[in-house]
Design a protein that fits this description.
single chain; 296 residues; alpha/beta; Rossmann fold; seven-stranded parallel β-sheet; three-stranded mixed β-sheet; globular
Length: 296
């Protein structure tokens, strides 16, 4: 299969590219710069020039492929609503290009969108009345494509997709701890985040591309819930700094935009995903991975 991958040079995207090529697929990767095109060439991937705001380039890439994996996202959380709208428009352009073909279109969202405080499943719908709900429109746009003969599949990823090269929440929390001299959590830190290793996530994207039915919702989750206090303690031990509880009203001042997410209690199941696609995560758990590769 010839697969068009957006975000192909990113942390998750590069793992997906390697997973696809190992399974015998050809990859066409979106490149927004000469540097990105050169990176793709080194990975053995054909480059397709364009970016998320060039909808014609996205549509052309989709039409040139047998399926699409869309992982690119503008990670500007100071302009989160705008980034989410750009994502929605990109998904709409990709879906329109694939309409009537029954070709797969796989794209991610996040488990943090789901209801807080209880174990969430693939059947849960995200509430629309929260500050982080802007990306729900992308989910809806993707899943609606299944009604237009696109084999659309949504993968809600854990907030910590971890592994060597991670640039997400965990490295940011480590940097805050280094800068402030304390490793903090919000409240008592008992709230939980799911986690998954990037190679396990990449394998799930490949399985979804190959065999997920239209309109499928999957959860990229290996560990259902790691307490934020445990994450803070692991950082504190490695950096030899104290652990501190930050009250909710002080979270913004300490964590910046991350405070929008850090108080969420987000335990999440992937039982349906595992059964449907015979997906079995085998990477290291989050805390072990942190100790081994996050503090060199």
């Amino acid at each position: 299969m010839r697969v068009f991958v957006t975000g192909a040079t990113g942390f998750i995207g590069t793992a997906i590219v390697q997973e696809l090529r190992s399974a015998g697929h050809q990859v066409l990767g979106l490149a927004r710069s000469d540097a990105a095109a050169q990176t793709l060439t080194r990975l053995g991937v054909e480059a397709h020039r364009g970016d998320l705001e060039d909808l014609q380039s996205l549509a052309a890439g989709a039409r040139a492929a047998d399926g699409v994996i869309h992982t690119a996202f503008i990670h500007d959380f100071d302009a989160y609503a705008q980034a989410a709208e750009t994502d929605r428009q990109a998904i709409a352009a990709l879906a329109s290009a694939l309409e009537g073909t029954h070709k797969p279109l796989v794209a991610p969202s996040g488990t943090l969108l789901l209801p807080s405080g209880r174990l969430a499943t693939e059947r849960d719908e995200p509430p629309r009345d929260r500050a982080i709900a802007a990306r729900v429109a992308s989910e809806q746009t993707l899943l609606a494509a299944a009604q237009q003969d696109v084999r659309a599949c949504l993968i809600r990823l854990a907030p910590s997709v971890h592994g060597v090269g991670d640039k997400g929440f965990i490295p940011m929390l480590i940097e805050v701890a280094r800068r402030s001299g304390v490793s903090a959590h919000v409240g008592d830190g008992s709230n939980r985040w799911p986690a998954v290793h990037r190679l396990d996530a990449a394998r799930l994207f490949r399985l979804a591309l190959e065999k997920a039915p239209p309109g499928t919702i999957l959860h990229g989750v290996a560990e259902e819930g790691v307490p934020l206090r445990s994450i803070a303690e692991t950082i504190a031990q490695a950096l030899r700094v104290p652990v501190r509880a930050i009250p909710l009203e002080g979270a913004r001042a300490h964590f910046g935009w991350m405070s929008l997410f850090l108080a969420n209690d987000n335990p999440t199941s992937s039982a349906h995903t595992r059964a449907l696609l015979d997906w079995h995560p085998r990477g290291p758990d989050l805390l072990s991975d942190m100790r081994q590769s996050y503090f060199a």
